[in-house]
Amino acid sequence: xxxxxVVVVAFWAMLPAYVPNNAAVLAGGGPPIxxxxxxxxxxxxxxxxxxxxxxxxxxxxxxLALALNAVRPSVADxxxxxxxxxxxxxxxxxxxxxxxxxxxxxxxxxRTGRQRGAAFPGLDQLxxxxxxxxxxxxxxxxxxxxxxxxxxxxxxxxxxxLLHVSTNAGAYALGLKDEPW
Length: 181
Description:
This protein has about 180 residues and is an all-alpha fold. About 70% of the residues lie in helices and about 0% in strands. Strands 1-2 form a two-stranded antiparallel ribbon. The radius of gyration is 17 Å and the shape is globular.
C-alpha cells in the first residue's frame, strides 16, 4: 500500500472521531456534565463540558459516519482507494469515544491544576483519538484491527496533532474558541 493510500484511509477512518469535538463547540452550552461539583478542591470537569455539547458532538460524528458510508463507493472509485465502511456499532462508538477522550482529558487537566482552555500538549491532541480507537476496538475488534494497521495508526498519530492545532486556530480566528489551541 502506497503512502497516499495510507493517508487517505487514515483520514477517512478517523473523520467520525475528528468532527465531534468541533461540533460540540457549536452545540455546547447548557448545564455542565459535572453539575458544578468539585473533587479535592477542583472542579471535576468544568463548565466547558456540557451535556448538550457532548450529545451534539456524538450526533455529528455518527451522522458523518453514516454519510461517509453512503458516499463511500463513489469516493473510493474517484480516489482509487479501498475505503472502509463503518459498521453500525462503530458509527456511534468512534464519536462517543472521541467525546469521552475529551472529557477524560478535562478531568486530567483539572487534577493537574490547569484551568479551562489551558494547553496540555500531547493530551490535547491525542486524547480523543485514543478513546475513539479504544471504543471502536471494544465494539468491532476485527474492523478496527483491519482498518488501523500500524502504518495507518502512524499517520493518525502524526497528522492528528497538525489537524487539531490548525482547526483550533481557525475556530479561534472565527471567534468560536477563547484560545487558539
